[in-house]
From TrEMBL, chain A:
Subcellular location per the Swiss-Prot or TrEMBL entry: Cell membrane
Coiled coil ranges: none
Keywords: ATP-binding, Cell membrane, Membrane, Nucleotide-binding, Repeat, Sugar transport, Translocase, Transport
This protein's name: Xylose ABC transporter ATP-binding protein
Taxonomy of the source species: Bacteria, Bacillati, Actinomycetota, Actinomycetes, Streptosporangiales
KW Signal (keyword) present: no
From TrEMBL, chain B:
Organism encoding this protein: Planotetraspora silvatica
GO terms for cellular component: plasma membrane
Membrane topology: Multi-pass membrane protein
Function: Part of the binding-protein-dependent transport system for D-xylose. Probably responsible for the translocation of the substrate across the membrane.
Transmembrane spans: 39-59, 71-90, 102-130, 137-156, 196-217, 238-256, 262-279, 309-329
Short name of any one Pfam family annotated for the protein: BPD_transp_2
Name by which UniProt lists this protein: Xylose transport system permease protein XylH
NCBIfam families from the UniProt entry: GguB
């Protein structure tokens, strides 16, 4: 018999009208790193919420045993008491408080109700060194980067004497270097005897770190794989997740590259917060009709900043440089000017910057080009419905109707709404910032298909992505950005991950 | 929440009493959107409750007329307020703006003998300028509306006292008093309604025209949607809603026709509700307001001129405050230093009772007006049964809290249902 620290048996959780989990089994061995894979909506987060007591005992069916004892958690405090700590994708830190205060949030080091600051900071320092974060514990959270914040979350879990650490998409917002550091840390924690459950979309990461894998699909546990004994490949995991073998993760595409669509010349952007700092320096970049161009770069390289400064100067101050649309100089000083010049920018953070989540699909689709549906200031809402419904059909947006609220759609379908919104502006140049972030494999394929179709219709497309395989699989040409400068340009035929990574890290100290 | 239905606008004449339940066209089945129609059901229940408690006095012709006239200025303010709340802002200054615009109108007409049409025009422009002043600080300077309008509340009250020289000014010309307090003439004389007695023919004809207009507009909307193969209410459901709305409108109109005909403020109010419902549902400008309140960042990145929209909804609030200021002063026949005290709170309460969301992005003109009427009926009904004012206040506070609690509860339920 294996020594299981956690056993979940026959977990079934129903929401009104939906069976989110159906007879799910999960066994985690003591001291291993166990990955849970599955498409969005497969039930991964729901399962973790059942485990951590977010959904209390009684609201689901099935048995949980931790360390051989049955568990009936009434809330998160209960599960944390037993040493089960969950770190959510959206970090739960108070940005205005110090690192030490955050570590002991809800767990304050106090004597008779008064906080002992010396003890708090001293113990925080100790925890920080355990997670390899060299920061003063009185530093404010908002002053450190996302990668370091993630480490603070782990230190916080250690402060709670964690025995089973659950991480939901821990590296989604991290660059490769920070991700690598985090994975190393998890290996270190494993060696100290802390069991980890990690939810991740990044299969290369799962392959690199996991000792075993459980795959969920449509609320059911499909299979559990042991990395040591089973022959596990990324394709094997993917076929388990989607229930079919994906021939190829990228749809085949024969580019029809035409004339120049957008040229950016000597583009320099300064930081709006730090005086004099150049975020983008002297960038020259050309997009052609029918071409999908990638923009690679580490976090902080200035990719989003470059895109947003071009899109109506929505980022940065003291912007210099020139824009040419089909050879003619253009101005795009405001979002409206950018849109009227046929430039569109689909943001990397669709929930915060892309969609009105409390509105329905059709009103989101029309938001950036409402005047197209209006005469003398009055909107024809029947036309609006028709237009949105056409996009729903052509892009396969899964929703009961275009009157469905976007906040209730899955990430992939939300992304399709964002794309529809920008396509409806009649843009010739589409800048897509992380178009598949947080989207499951099946939906990614659909998004790639849409991008290919857009290119085939003569649009010029710039894809910004942190996933190199995505850029390699999708793009005809790739620029690498490092510290605000273009450090390399590679054609698809000569592109390798290593080569792009070299460019991406060029000039970094 | 996000209804596109122009039907709200077409239903607007019914806003002076219970509009028909819900919005047609969203659902194919019988599913009732509780969040959207809850307010109308609540209003109907409150009317029924007070009708029973007052032995029918609530729905007597004179009392209906009183409710409309007494609450008209709050209802007008609530129309402007809902736009501001949808955009995610607030206006605490409207009470003081009502006072100062009433004072300006009084000084112009009484002290300087300016002809009333010109005086009203100047007053409306003054209201617009006040709105522009506040809109500038909020939209272009970036100060939170809460602060700017809190300052405005003090500033414009001070200005009122200065303009009035700390005393009431009146009386107003007859035309202004008629607008605030008066009724349409019996142009076509009376007709007998059997046991109900005589009633004004003009009012009744107007009511019939309004009902017919509503029915035709609704029918055409429905037909257009069917032409686009959208889901619409089934025919019996559609007819039921129309008949209900028509019955309510005609009941109110007949009661009014039996008393002193239609109050002019009702005509004004109906026009405003209709116009603003159209703007919020159908106009590009109205859509921008929802987009800004729903997600400011997304609106900015969609090329919406956020600053200009915010600026203009405050200008609009200033103009509507001026209209309310004139009506209130005209009704009292005097512009006084304490006019409009705490009107802002009534208008804000009306908007929230009427289904606006605290975070912005949600709300309807008809909802806000219904919210205002709910408070009006509670006020009126409780005073008819002789409740002391502290109890009226208590009930109004409880209703406001209950309405927002209900809104939060339904939202949470919806969120957990959708995982």
């Amino acid at each position: 018999m294996t020594d299981d620290i956690l056993r979940m048996r026959g977990i079934t959780k129903t929401f009104p009208g939906v069976k989110a989990l159906q007879d799910v089994n999960l066994s985690v061995r003591r001291g291993e790193i166990h990955a849970i894979c599955g498409e969005n909506g497969a039930g991964k987060s729901t399962l973790m919420k059942v485990l951590s007591g977010v959904y209390p005992h009684g609201s689901y069916e099935g048995e949980i045993s931790f360390d051989g004892e049955p568990c009936r958690f009434a809330d998160i405090r209960d599960s944390e008491h037993r040493g089960i700590v969950i770190i959510h994708q959206e970090l739960a830190l108070c940005p205005q408080l110090s690192i030490a205060e955050n570590i002991f949030l809800g767990n304050e080091q106090a004597t008779r109700g008064l906080i002992d600051w010396n003890r708090t900071n001293a113990e925080a320092s100790e925890l920080l060194s355990r997670v390899g974060l060299h920061e003063n514990p009185v530093t404010t959270i908002s002053d450190i980067g996302v990668g370091k914040q993630q480490l603070v979350e782990i230190a916080k879990a250690l402060a709670k004497k964690v025995r089973l650490l659950i991480l939901d998409e821990p590296t989604a917002a991290l660059n490769d270097e920070d991700s690598e550091h985090l994975l190393d840390l998890l290996r270190g924690l494993r060696d100290e005897g802390i069991t980890c459950v990690i939810i991740s979309h990044k299969l290369n990461e799962v392959m690199a770190i996991a000792d075993s894998i459980t795959i969920l699909r449509d609320g059911r546990s499909i299979e559990s794989l042991d990395m040591a004994t089973d022959e596990v490949t990324e394709d094997r995991i993917i076929s388990g997740m989607v229930g079919r073998a994906l021939e190829n993760r990228f749809p085949p595409h024969e580019p029809q590259i035409g004339e120049e669509a957008l040229r950016i010349e000597n583009w320099t952007v300064h930081s709006p917060t730090q005086r004099g700092r150049e975020v983008v320096s002297d960038v020259n970049l050309t997009l052609r009709k029918g071409e999908i161009v990638g923009l690679a770069g580490l976090m902080g390289a200035g990719r989003t900043e470059l895109a947003m400064s071009v899109f109506g100067r929505t980022y940065g101050t003291n912007i210099s440089g020139r824009l040419f649309k089909e050879g003619r100089p253009i101005e795009a000083r405001t979002v409206r000017e950018a849109i009227s010049n046929g430039i569109a920018y689909a943001t990397e953070d669709r929930k915060r910057y892309g969609l009105n989540l409390i509105e329905d699909i059709k009103r989101n689709v029309s938001a950036a080009a409402l005047s197209k549906l209006a005469r003398r200031g009055w909107v024809n809402d029947n036309e609006e419905y028709r237009v949105a419904d056409e996009y729903r059909a052509s892009m396969n947006i899964k929703a009961p109707s275009v009157s469905s609220v976007t906040g209730k759609l899955s990430g992939g379908n939300q992304q399709k709404v964002v794309l529809a919104k920008w396509i409806f502006t009649d843009a010739d140049v589409l800048i897509l910032d992380e178009p598949t972030r947080g989207i499951d494999v099946g939906a990614k394929y659909e998004i790639y298909t849409i991008i290919n179709r857009l290119a085939d219709s003569g649009k010029a497309i710039l894809v910004i992505s942190s996933e190199l395989p995505e850029l390699l699989g999708l793009c005809d040409r790739i620029y690498a950005l490092s510290a605000g400068r273009i450090t390399g340009e590679v054609q698809r035929s000569d592109a390798t991950q290593e080569r792009i990574m070299q460019y991406m890290t060029k000039g970094l100290d | 929440m996000s209804s596109t239905s122009p039907s709200d606008a077409a239903l607007a004449p019914g806003a002076k009493d219970t509009p028909a339940p819900g919005t047609p066209g969203r659902s194919s089945g019988l599913s009732i959107n509780v969040r959207q129609s809850g307010i109308y059901i609540a209003f109907a229940l409150i009317v029924v409750l007070f009708t029973i408690l007052t032995d029918g006095a609530l729905l007597q012709p004179q009392n209906i007329s009183n409710i409309i006239v007494q609450n008209s200025y709050i209802l007008i303010l609530s129309i402007g307020m809902i736009l501001i709340i949808i955009a995610g802002h607030i206006d605490l200054s409207v009470g003081s703006v009502v006072a100062v615009t009433g004072a300006i109108a009084a000084v112009l007409m009484v002290n300087y003998g300016v002809p009333w049409p010109l005086a009203l025009l100047i007053t409306l422009i003054a209201g617009a300028l006040i709105g522009a002043w506040q809109g500038y600080w909020i939209a272009y300077f970036g100060i939170p509306a809460f602060i700017v309008t809190l300052a405005g509340m003090l500033l414009f009250r001070a200005l009122t006292l200065t303009v009035l020289g700390n005393q009431g000014i009146g009386p107003f010309p007859d035309a202004v008093r008629t607008l605030s307090n008066g009724f349409t003439d019996g142009y076509f004389g009376n007709i007998g309604l059997g046991p109900l007695g005589g009633a004004d023919l003009f009012s009744i004809l107007l009511g019939i025209v309004a009902v017919a207009g509503m029915a035709i507009a609704q029918w055409r909307t429905r037909a257009a949607r069917m032409g686009y193969r959208q889901a619409v209410d089934s025919l019996p459901m559609f007819l039921l809603k129309i008949v209900l709305a028509a019955a309510v409108i005609l009941f109110v109109i007949v009661q009014l026709a039996r008393f002193k005909n239609l109050p002019w403020v009702l005509v004004l109010l109906a026009a405003l509700v209709l116009g603003y419902s159209l703007v919020t549902n159908r106009a590009v400008f109205g859509r921008r307001i929802y987009a800004i309140g729903g997600n400011l960042q997304a609106a900015l990145l969609s090329g919406i001129k956020v600053k200009s929209v915010i600026f203009w909804i405050f200008v609009n609030m200033g103009v509507l405050s001026a209209i309310a200021g004139i009506i209130f002063a005209g009704r009292l026949n005097q512009a006084g230093p304490t006019a409009g005290n705490s009107f802002e709170l009534d208008a804000i309460a009306a908007a929230f009772i009427g289904g606006a969301a605290v975070q912005g992005g949600v709300g309807k003109v008809v909802g806000a007006v219904t919210g205002g009427l709910i408070m009006g009926v509670i006020n009126n009904g409780m005073s008819l049964i002789g409740s002391p004012s502290e109890r009226v206040m208590l009930v109004k506070g409880a209703v406001l809290l209950a309405a927002v609690a209900f809104d939060v509860w339904t939202k949470r339920r919806a969120a957990s249902a959708s995982r």
